Amino acid sequence: MNPAILVPLVVLLPLLGAxxxxxxxxxxxxxxxxxxxxxxAVAVISAVLLAxxxxxxAGVVVQVGGWEPPxxxxxxxxxxAAIMLLISAIVLLGVLVYAVSQGVADRHRExxxxxxxxxxxxxxxxxxxxxxxxxxxxxxxxxxILLSASYVLLTLGGTGERIRAGVTYILVSLVSSLFFLSxxxxxxxxxxxANIAQLSVRIAELPDSVQLILxxxxxxxxxxxxxxxxxxxxxxDSYPTAPAPVTAVFAGLLTKVGVYAIIRTETVxxxxxxxxxxxxxxxxxxxxxxxxxxLTQADIKRLLSFTLVSHIGYMIFGIGLAxxxxxxxxxxxxxxxxxxxTALFLTTGLIERFGGxxxxxxxxxxxxxxxLLAILFFIPALNLGGIPPFSGFLGKxxxxxxxxxxxxxSVGGPAWLTWTVxxxxxxxxxxxxxxLTRFWNMAxxxxxxxxxxYDSPLLNSVLEWEGSGxxxxxxxxxxxxxVVVTTALVAITVLLTVFAGPLFDLAGRxxxxxxxxxxxxxxxxxxxxx
Length: 530
Fold this sequence. Notes:
Largest sheet: 2 strands, antiparallel
Subcellular location: Cell membrane; Membrane
Mean pLDDT: 86
Organism: Agromyces soli
Low-confidence stretches: 465-476
Membrane topology: Multi-pass membrane protein
Main location: membrane
Keywords: Cell membrane, Membrane, Transmembrane, Transmembrane helix
C-alpha cells in the first residue's frame, strides 16, 4: 500500500468524526465510540507512517489536489512529523478515555458530551494538521483549527472563572495569530511563496536585515504559542481553570505545537539567519522564571502550569544550540515532556476527586487512603525533576552534554552563555524536584489531623472503610478507566527510560535530517526548488 494514501487521513478522519459526533449529539455512547475509533485509527496510521519513513530514510509527501508545489498544498511526513503524530495520537486517545469516564461518573455536568466530542476531535485535527503542514499558511490554518476548538473546551461548564480565563486565552491567541499572519504576508510579499521547502532557498536571497525582521516576527508568534518567557504570562491563569482532562491535553500538547513550529522554521527556513544567542537567553530565562513562579504556588494545578513553562526552556535551549546532538536531545525531551506533563495533570484530576481539593493547604492523608494514587504522582514527579534513571534525567543529560560539547567552539552562542544556561537548567531541575516532593509530602505523607478543618467526603468514606476493617482502594470511589489511563501514561514514561537507547537513536536520525535542509527540500521538490 502506498503510504501517501494515509497522510491526509490523519486530518480527515478527526474532521469527519467531529461532524458525525455532532450529528449524534443525543446519542452519547455512539459519540464516544466514534471519537475513540477515530483517534485509535490515527494512532495506528501514525505508527505505520513512522515505521515507513524511518525504514526508508525518506519522508512521505502528498500534493493536495494534484497541484504541484509551490502552487498546491503540500502535506509532509518526515521522521519529526511522524514522531509528533504518534505521541500526540496516543495522548489524545488516552485523555479521551479519561474524560469520557469522568463525564459518565459526573453525569456529564461539567463536560457536556454533545459539545465535548466534536470540539475534541476538531482540536485533534488542528494538532495533526500543524505537524504535517508543508507551507506556512497551512500551518497557520492548523493553529487556528486547534485554537477555535480550544476556546470551546477551555470554557466548558460556563463558570465565571473559566469564562475569564477563556477571554485571556482568546485575546493572547488572537494577538499571536495576528503576528503569525502578518509574518506570512510579509514573507510571501518578499519571496513570492509560503512553501517551507522553497522558502529555505528564497529567504537566503534576501538582505540580512530583512531576514532578521521576518525571523523575529515568526519567532514572536510561535513564542507566544509555546509560552516562552516573557510571553508565558497567560498560561498559568488559563490552563488550571479547565476540567482536568482538558487541562492535561492542553499542557501536554498545545505548547509543543509551538515548539515544533520553532524547530521546523529554525532548521529549514532560517539557516542563514542566526538567532541562537537569543534562543539561549530565552531558554535560560524561561527555565528560571517559570520554576521560581512554581515555588510561590499553593495550588498543584498552578504549580504544574509554572513547571510546564519552565521546562519549555529546556527545549528552546536545545534548539538554540543549533547542533545535531542538541536537536536529538530536544526531540527526546519533547516526547518525554508530553507524556510526563499529561500524566501529572491526569493524576491531579484524580487527587481533586479523591481529596476534594487541589490546594496544598487543604490536602492530607492521601497515602494511607490510596497508595496507588501516591505512586502515580510520585513516579512522574521524580521523572520531571530529573532523577536518574528516568527519561527526564536522560533528556536533560543529553541537552547538557550537547551544550558542553558545543561550548568550547561557541556553537549556538558565546561559551559562557551556554555554560550559564546549563547551570540554570541544573538549578531548575533541582527546584522542580523540591516543589513537587514538597506537594507530595504535604498531600500524601502528612496526616489529615494536621490540617485544621479538613473535610473531604470521598476521602472520609475511604478511611471509614479502613477503620471498619475492610479493604478500601481508590478504584472504589474513582472510575476505574480514569485510573487505568493514568497508570498507562505513567507506564509509558517509564518505558521511555527502558527504551531510551532506541529512542535516542531515532531522535538522532531525525536530528540528522533536520540539520541538513536539503533533505526536507528534496522531499517536497524532488527535482530541485523551482
